[in-house]
Each structure stands twice: as C-alpha cells, then as structure tokens.
Design brief:
The structure is a single chain. The chain is of the alpha+beta class. Helix content is 46%, strand content 27%. It is built from two helices and three strands; from the N terminus they run ααβββ. The protein has a three-stranded antiparallel sheet with strand order 1-2-3, covered by helices on one side. Helix 1 runs antiparallel to helix 2. The longest helix has 32 residues. It is elongated and about 55 Å long.
C-alpha cells in the first residue's frame, strides 16, 4: 500500500512538472516570436527549471523545445515539450 501511494505521488509530481514545462515553452515561443530570443532560455529556466533545447523557425512559426528531468525516484523518461507561435517579426 505504501509503495502504491509513493508511486502515485511521484507520478503526480511528474505530471505537475510537465504542465509547468508546457506553460514555459508556450510563453517562450511567444517571446521568441516577438523578437526576443535572447531571453527565452532564462524564461524556461525560471518558470520550469528546465533547459532550452532549440528555437526553430518553421515557416511562419517560431517553435521552442525544452526538456527537464523528472526529479522523482521513478524510472520515468525525461520530460520534453514543444510550442510554436506565429512569427511577429514578419
């Protein structure tokens, strides 16, 4: 029973971290699309304590990808999120 509770709590913690990561990359994509890509890594690190993997122009979009460790003692893969915003510099 204790193991089940620990696994549930760890999984909920990982899901919460993924939600923060997704919010961070969404805001970072909007920031990059506004023409401020130099602040994107700091924003991702501040909001989700994650690392910026890439900022890529994809047609009319600017896409940001970031990843973060799970930080729970469970055999879960690294968390990753990607978000795109319409390029405002065009």
């Amino acid at each position: 029973m204790i193991l089940l509770i620990a696994l549930t709590a760890g999984s909920l913690s990982a899901v919460g971290r993924l939600v923060r990561l997704e919010q961070a990359v969404a805001q970072a994509a909007r920031l990059a699309a506004r023409g401020e890509p130099d602040r994107v890594a700091e924003l991702v690190a501040t909001i989700a304590d994650a690392r910026l993997d890439a900022i890529v122009a994809d047609g009319d979009l600017v896409c940001v990808t970031a990843s973060a460790g799970v930080r729970v003692p469970l055999p879960l893969p690294e968390l990753s999120a990607r978000s795109c915003a319409l390029d405002g510099g065009r």
